[in-house]
Amino acid sequence: MKKDYSVIQLLIGIVVISLFICGIFYLIISIIDFIFPFLLNTHEKIVIWTIVLSVSTILLGIVAVLQDIIRRMITKPILNCELILDSPHCHLLKKTYTYYIRFKVSNTGNEVAKNVEVFLKSVKNSLGDIIPVSPGNLQWSSLILKGDRFEPRMYWDYLSQGTHQYCNLGEITHPLHIPKEDMSLIPLEERKYSTLNLSLYWRSIDGSFKLPRGKYILEIVVGSSNAKPININFEIEHSGEWYENEVDMFNKGLKIFRT
């Protein structure tokens, strides 16, 4: 059942204000009793202090019951995403003739973000039409050791406050260094151009994750088990041309904007 945090926030506000009023009332009565000690008799004083004490105890009890909810509202992770199309964030691995496009996922809150994931929700062309790319999680840049081998990550277990990790958006490989079996799904007239291969954790066998040259809009959701998800759109201009240095590649061959 989803909690109605607006009601909870209202209740907490009422409790805090009530405690503040009780404190002010207690202070006022104490000052009056100090200046005019004979204004109130002993019985009236006992009644006033009992009422103030009872109300304060009830309010403190409410705060004690809601302390976990209050803590979650005050201390929480806040996720953010930033793509800088420049080295070392995005870079060329010369050994494989491949450019790796990555973006930073950071936690700017005051609590650890748990089980962080980056989900590719949709891909659209320049006309706004949805391209049939299977939605799914993107891979994190760092691998995880499972048994005796390293495997891609779907989730990042813990993202501490004030830190960041890189997530892969995709990679671009020189057309002459793409294995022949991987070229079979690319039209002949497009084989001299590079493709932007989205770094999906599960890549469909139809090769729909390979984006040929063109303009695209990627809708991405960054979320975790204890943080509010954020929706991000990246506008991509991919010329398909290959450049041997990063400066030209990230200025002429590929352009990415957050919209």
| Count of separate DSSP helical elements | 5
Report, as a whole number of angstroms, the end-to-end distance: 33 Å
Question: What is the makeup of the main sheet?
Answer: 6 strands, antiparallel
Low-confidence stretches: none
Rounded Rg: 29 Å
Which architecture name of the largest domain does CATH use?
Sandwich
**What count of structural domains?**
2
Can you say what the CATH homologous superfamily of the largest domain is? Immunoglobulins
What is the number of beta strands? 14
Query: What proportion of the residues form beta strands (DSSP E)?
Result: 25-35%
CATH class of the largest domain: Mainly Beta
The level of helicity is 25-40%
Q: What is the SS-derived class?
A: alpha+beta
CATH topology of the largest domain: Immunoglobulin-like
Mean pLDDT: 84
SSE sequence, one letter per element? HHHEEEEEEEEEHEEEEHE
- Global outline: rod-shaped
Task: Please give a structural write-up.
The protein is of the alpha+beta class and 259 residues long. The protein folds into two domains: 70 residues; 180 residues, Immunoglobulins (Immunoglobulin-like, Sandwich). The chain contains five helices and 14 strands. The strands form three sheets. Strands 1, 2, 3, 9, 10 and 11 form a six-stranded antiparallel sheet that branches. Helix 1 runs antiparallel to helix 2. The radius of gyration is 29 Å and the shape is rod-shaped. The two termini are 33 Å apart. 19% of the residues are buried.
Quick gist of this model?
The chain is of the alpha+beta class and 259 residues long.
